[in-house]
From TrEMBL:
InterPro entries: HTTM-like (IPR011020), HTTM_dom (IPR053934), VKG_COase (IPR007782), VKGC_lumenal_dom (IPR053935). Residues 7-266 form the HTTM-like domain. It comes from the Bacteria. PANTHER family: HTTM DOMAIN-CONTAINING PROTEIN, VITAMIN K-DEPENDENT GAMMA-CARBOXYLASE. It is found in: Endomembrane system. Pfam families: HTTM, VKGC_lumenal_dom. The keyword Disulfide bond applies. Keywords: Disulfide bond, Lyase, Membrane, Transmembrane, Transmembrane helix. The keyword Nucleus does not apply. The chain crosses the membrane at residues 16-39, 67-86, 111-128, 149-167, 201-223, 230-262. This is HTTM-like domain-containing protein.
Length: 442
């Protein structure tokens, strides 16, 4: 039964059309970063980037190197669109995008993580076996079908993303409209729509429409009677996100995913009328079945477990950020703060207040006051700089943070020498002070 479910051959029209859409979108993502100034602000202006801890070797190329890096990455996106040297092009884009993702955290976005996952998916599926340069050059590659596990994989992945995004909203500050109201307040200067977004009813609609949509979108797309209505709702939802939150290609990528939910015959007739429609439903079990099944199990166990890990770490993830990344906690809080880094010479007792602007870009200034892991990394960088000069120092941090418009609270224990503090990946860092968020809400 499982064998038939996974390896039954089905028409590949949705995958072929998705490849073209996906290739165009990742090209826009890469080249758009050049022309919007994202690369300059994020990867060129800073003297260093806050990479994922343990990956210090990932730093931007010197000078204008990152412009060339993104230009090449966009070219691989074009090759994916055309289906030219598909496996190599997709693998190259995946590697280059992953390196940038793990290289910097000042522009962290959970959608960037999703793009890595989809890149890996596209790398292993037969998306180049029709309507591609590869097929034109090697006709033996042409195939009108794909194994059914392709559909299963993408649908399960999307269900996990949307469901966790919905469940993460089930906390008081979202349900009472606090977070949506703060998000809309930050958009009040938007041309044309800024004043509209300040209407009292808007946060309430966003609160429950967002939560309910994320929870039901995949089941409703799977069920024929609700497929078209939820698709129309999805168009509105994702266009709203694109205009208001300006999150790049991801609203359009989300709409492209809907291809996998509509009947293959409809996709073939609408987008690939010259393609032969495959309907034999043969079951072809490949030699790689054991490896594929093992991959499936490991992949989805990780996808199910990673977003839950913050429940096994003391204190509130909104405060500590421990377990926030590599999950689907999207646009769930508003944080602001300020911090002071004091260096003490252990030989003379002399104290120096660190001039942060001498080290950090404007984008980095925000996260170095609100995110404990970034605070720790900055302290380690200062420690290394002074050690290279032969100086023995201690570093003390005074940081106060406000979450969802609550009163400011101290974030870091001011009595802990952060030069000696360690970072624990899988457990709580006790130099982060308790949050007390529940009692501090106005």
């Amino acid at each position: 039964m499982l064998q038939k479910w996974l390896f039954k051959q089905v028409d590949s029209s949705a995958l072929i059309v998705f490849r073209v859409c996906f290739g165009l979108l990742i090209t826009i993502e890469a080249w758009g970063a050049i022309f919007t100034g994202w690369i300059r602000r994020t990867l060129i202006e800073p003297t260093f980037t806050f990479n994922f801890i343990g990956l210090d070797f990932l730093q931007p190329l010197p000078g204008n190197g990152m412009y060339y890096y993104y230009a090449v990455m966009g070219l691989f996106g074009v090759f994916v669109t055309l289906g030219y040297k598909y496996r190599f092009s997709m693998a190259s884009y995946t590697l280059m995008w992953s390196c940038v993702y793990f290289m910097q955290k000042s522009s962290y976005n959970n959608h960037y993580y999703l793009l890595i996952l989809i890149c890996i998916f596209m790398l292993i599926v037969p998306a180049h076996r029709y309507f591609s340069v590869d097929v034109k050059q090697k006709p033996a590659l042409k195939k009108f079908s794909m194994p059914n596990w392709v559909n299963i994989f993408i649908i399960l992945q999307l269900w996990i993303v949307y469901t966790y995004a919905s469940v993460a909203k089930l906390y008081p500050d979202w349900l009472d409209g606090t977070v949506p109201a703060l998000l809309m307040k930050s958009k009040q200067d938007y041309w044309l729509i800024g004043d509209f977004l300040q209407n009292d009813w808007v946060p309430g609609v966003i609160t429950y429409f967002g939560l309910i949509f994320d929870l039901i979108v995949v089941p409703c797309l799977l069920w024929k009677p609700t497929r078209k209505p939820i698709f129309i709702a999805a168009i509105f939802f994702h266009l709203f996100n694109s205009i208001v939150f300006q999150i790049g290609i991801f609203p359009y990528l989300s709409l492209a995913f809907c291809l996998f939910f509509f009947p293959a015959k409809s996709i073939q007739q609408r987008f690939l009328p010259k393609k032969k429609f495959y309907e034999l439903e043969e079951v072809t079990v490949p030699n790689y079945k054991p490896a594929l099944v093992s991959f499936f199990v490991i992949w989805f166990l990780l996808q199910l477990c990673l977003p839950l890990r913050h429940w096994f770490i003391p204190d509130n993830v909104l405060w500590t950020e421990e377990g926030h990344r590599l999950s689907w906690r999207m646009m769930l809080r508003s944080k602001s703060g300020h911090s002071t880094f004091t260096i003490v010479d252990n030989n003379t007792g002399k104290k120096i207040i660190v001039p942060k602007r001498n080290y950090l870009s404007k984008k980095q200034m925000g996260i170095v006051s609100t995110k404990p892991d970034v605070i720790w990394q900055f302290c380690q960088r200062l420690k290394k700089e002074y050690e290279e000069k032969g100086e023995d120092i201690s570093i003390y941090v005074n940081a106060k943070v406000r979450v969802n418009n609550r009163p400011s609270q101290p974030l870091i224990d001011p009595n802990v020498d952060m030069a000696k503090a360690e970072w624990n990946y899988f457990s709580h860092n006790d130099w982060i002070l308790p949050s007390n968020l529940e009692k501090s809400k106005k």
